Amino acid sequence: xxxxxxxxxxxxxxxxxxxxxxxxxxxxxxxxxxxxxxxxxxxxxxxxxxxxxxxxxxxxxxxxxxxxxxxxxxxxxxxxxxxxxxxxxxxxxxxxxxxxxxxxxxxxxxxxxxxxxxxxxxxxxxxxxxxxxxxxxxxxxxxxxxxxxxxxxxxxxxxxxxxxxxxxxxxxxxxxxxxxxxxxxxxxxxxxxxxxxxxxxxxxxxxxxxxxxxxxxxxxxxxxxxxxxxxxxxxxxxxxxxxxxxxxxxxxxxxxxxxxxxxxxxxxxxxxxxxxxxxxxxxxxxxxxxxxxxxxxxxxxxxxxxxxxxxxxxxxxxxxxxxxxxxxxxxxxxxxxxxxxxxxxxxxxxxxxxxxxxxxxxxxxxxxxxxxxxxxxxxxxxxxxxxxxx
Length: 390
Ligand SMILES: *Cc1c(COP(=O)(O)O)cnc(C)c1O
Prior knowledge:
Elements: H1 4-9, H2 37-45, H3 59-72, E1 76-80, H4 83-92, E2 100-104, H5 109-118, E3 125-129, H6 134-140, E4 145-151, H7 163-172, E5 176-180, H8 185-188, E6 198-202, E7 216-220, H9 222-236, H10 242-253, H11 255-274, E8 279-283, H12 293-299, E9 306-311, H13 316-325, E10 330-331, E11 341-344, E12 363-367, H14 373-389
Parallel strand pairs: 2-3, 2-4, 4-5, 5-6, 10-11
Antiparallel strand pairs: 1-7, 6-7, 8-9, 9-12, 11-12
Helix pairs in contact: 3-10, 13-14
């Protein structure tokens, strides 16, 4: 049985083990005791088989693992103490000195820093490609390419890759495919069912959903997860803590209704922004003006929360005034929580380098949270008005 309601409410929860409590216990223990030397020996030989020490397996984390793997339609998953950790473990476990990686252009910043700064120290090189065309992957593959790294959509301009086509190409070349699915969550896109080998997401975003946990999920075959557990996870000690796992189980209960609500509000916000005279362009994967709209509709069952605008601005000050005038929408990184957010691209640009002719410099990314749509639109309205006077 693989229905969503079953996964979120029952799967992995053996309530007879803990007084029929509805909410599972937080198994806040570092280690587990044994009665027999033979049992201990068995777990020493394979720590992925039983509870020994909470840097490895933990019962609260296991409840979460079962649910997340089922959502991803994967055999198994591992949960890390950040999305960045999940990214690192997924790639690092599949390469060795002399290997080559093909990555989509502009992946998540810390994926890019890993490719640019960390992996070259171990003799591992990366080629970035425009992932909108399958030929670009074909051309970039070398005899020593071991990993193709994808992020679809990415989190500023929502650029997509045709996951099924890339998976087919990679399979023929014996290359492992990894996809960052943070934007969609497994509710709106299932990369493994499209043929991708491993899927990861920052659970900090929609899974946690309340801006109070940093965590990451990596799903794949049981064999791959065991390999990563035995080396990267146990060596780096980057697994999630029982309490944070418990918070994610709690977040999962409401994931479908939060996404539903955010979808409805995002649609209203997108329509408002599209009709605003101070907005040059609205970028949103499920808007018919989106360059890869057909592909988005084909491989994603939903899109919500993140939307980017290119603001009409001659001076950076107009964007700065807009962002600083928002009263309810907070200026912050991240997304996926209850609260709406804004982040301007120009925060990563020195003021003297601002170029009003460069559309990227005028981008502001919004995250639409759980507030009432009118509350958000009124906030946009007064901030646009202040910006017009700047
Ligand atoms: C936030 C984010 C990550 C990193 O996750 P953390 O939980 O912050 O480590 C990775 N990929 C994408 C697309 C993200 O938005």
